[in-house]
Amino acid sequence: MARPTHRKKRRSERWHDVGDAAELARTPLQQIQVHGTRMALSCVNSVFGAIHGSCNHAGGPLGQGTLEGEYVVCPWHQWRFHRSEGHGERGFEQDVVPAYGVRVRGGRVQVSVTPHVKRHRKQHTPHPLAREPLREAGPVRVVGLSTTAMNADYPRYSTSDELLEVALAHARKLGCGTRLIRLRELSFRHCEGYYSKAARACTWPCSITQMDPDDQLDRVYEALVHWADVFVIATPIRWGGPSSLYFKMIERMNCIQNQLTIAGRTLLKDKVLTAIITGGQDNIQSVAGQLLGFFTELGCHIPQYAYIAHSRGWSAEDMERNVAVVQRSEELRDAAGALVERGVELAERLLATEAKAPSRGGRKGQLLRSAEVALAERAASALADERSRTR
C-alpha cells in the first residue's frame, strides 16, 4: 500500500535548543515540551526523531510509550507511529501525527516547531457498542446475569442459577422480553488497568472490547447499556463476598462509570437493578451492599426490597442439605417471582416518565481538577493551537 503524503509546504524553520545531544541520547524515548508543543523525542543508533506527543486515538502521551524498531508505541492502547515520519504502522499509514525536523549543532539537539508532516486522522468504523443508547419501543426487557462458576463438562446444580431461571420465567409470564447470560460461558479478559494509566485511557466501548474481537464481554455491555430495562444479578456467596466471575465482570465496567468522569455522560438510564444471593455461608448483607453500591454508582435504580437471599449460616457446612432446601422451597420461588415483579413495576414507571437525570452524581459528583485533567487540558489546547497554525 502506498504511503499517503501529508507533508506541508516548508515555511521558514524555527529551531529550538532542547538539550545536550549526548545526554538526550541516553533515553531512547522521552516526552519534551518545545515552545508550547508536546513532542515525543526518540533516539535510535544516535539518530534523533521527533513527532507530536499526542496520539491520534485518545490523546495518549506518545513520549511516555515505548520504541519498537522505528515506531513509537502509545502507552495507552498501543497505536504505533513512525518516530520521525509520523505515519502509522503497516496497514494504518493513513493515521499520521505531526513530525518535526531534528538536527544536532555543536553537540546540542535542536528541534523545529514547524511540522514537516501534518496530522491526519483516518476515519475508522465506530464499534457497534458506541452508538447512542436509545431504547426501542416494546415491553419491559429483563436480563438475567449468572455469575456462578462451574466445570462446563460436568455441570452441577446451582441454587443462584435455579432462582434466576425462576425469576426469568416469571418475567416472561408478565409479558417481558428476557435474556439469560451465564458469565461462565463467555471468554473475556480481565480488566487490564487502562484507567490506572489515565482516566481518558479508559474508553467507551471498553478498550479491550475495541481491540480484541474475540473478547465476549460485549454481550454483557450490549445487554446492559442498549437492551435491558431490568437487571437480575445472581451470585453465590464466596468467602463472604460475591463470586469471582462477578468481580471479573464489574472491573470491566469501569468504562461505563468513567464516561461520567470524562464526558459527563450517563450510559445506564432508567435501568433497574435486582439481585439474587445464595450460599452456604452467611454475610448476605455485605454481598448485597457490594452489588447495590456498585450498580447504583453506575446510575441504576433499585426497587423496594431489591434482593432476595438464602443462607443457612456460617456453621452450616453440609452443602448438600443447603441445595436440598432450595430445591424444595416454594417460598424462595415465590420470592424470585415477586422480586422480578417489583423490578418490572419500577421499570414501567421510569419508562412512563422523562425525569431529568442529574448532570453528575455518585462518587464522581464533584469534578476534581487533577494533575492529569490539567495535563489533558494543556494537550487539548496545544492541539487546538496546532490546528490554528496549520489552517
Tell me briefly what this model is:
31% of the residues lie in helices and 21% in strands.
Would you spell out the secondary-structure blueprint of this structure?
Blueprint: E1 15-20, H1 21-25, E2 29-34, E3 37-44, E4 47-52, E5 66-68, E6 71-73, E7 80-82, E8 99-105, E9 108-117, E10 141-146, H2 159-173, E11 177-182, H3 194-197, H4 207-211, H5 218-227, E12 230-236, H6 244-251, H7 254-263, E13 272-279, H8 284-297, E14 307-311, H9 319-328, H10 330-351, H11 371-390
Helix pairs in contact: 2-10
Descriptive report:
The chain has 391 residues and is α/β, with parallel strands linked by helices. The protein folds into 2 domains: 15-124, Rieske Iron-sulfur Protein (3-layer Sandwich); 140-359, Rossmann fold (3-Layer(aba) Sandwich), CATH 3.40.50. It is 31% helix and 21% strand. It is built from 11 helices and 14 strands. It is elongated. The two termini are 28 Å apart.
Keywords:
about 400 residues, single chain, Rieske Iron-sulfur Protein, 2 domains, 11 helices
CATH class group of the largest domain: Alpha Beta
Strands of the widest sheet, in order across it, are 1-9-8-4-3-2
Shape: elongated
CATH architecture of the largest domain: 3-Layer(aba) Sandwich
Strand content: 15-25%
Tell me the CATH topology of the largest domain. Answer: Rossmann fold
Task: Point out poorly predicted stretches.
Answer: none
**Helicity level:** 25-40%
The total of helices stands at: 11
Order of helices and strands: EHEEEEEEEEEHEHHHEHHEHEHHH
CATH superfamily of the largest domain: Flavodoxin domain
Helix-and-strand structural type = alpha/beta
